[in-house]
Amino acid sequence: MEGKDWLVTSDGEYQACKSIRAWDLITENYRLYRFLTELEDVIRKQLQESDCLGEIRQLVRRLLVNSYWIKTQHPEPDCKTGTSVKLLYDELGFPFTVQTVTFTSGTQSNIHNHGTWGIVAVLKGKEKNTLWKRNPTPEHQHKIEPTGEVILNPGDIVSFTPGAIHSVEAISNEPTVTFNLYGETKSKERFEFDIIRHTAKNF
Q: Whole-model pTM?
């Protein structure tokens, strides 16, 4: 599954990044436990976790190339919300979130950031990421404005710095399935934005 790599920053800018060919990542017996260990090793080398997003994207691509089972570990979307989340790993003290998410066609998220770095890989379907940046005024310190859109297809991987703001819409006819990896969330820095009232609240 070939794809593009993207980086989205807190100013709403996005850029294509160099992606390693899938066949260069094929490794015998590359399992989730090895991915998690290598992820911790990469993070420990950096003072700022977001500085190593390129390395983490490569680890995610290696995992997806070598671990077919992850592509099958997704629940059916909830009929009321249009989404479902499957946690792939959970351990007390482990500072990362590893999960797959399913969206029905047409489902849209709120406008938000994550309060940490994030990596999203599209496994199935297609999603549109609308990107935003802060544009505060004296009257509205949480005012934001759109800066662009990125369409993600199967095999594409996008990484977000902690302050990056986006909203997501599943735009294919079939459900969209993604693999999501997040660092340790700083809850006081994670916001949902209201573009009508120009407000932001923690969520």
A: 0.93
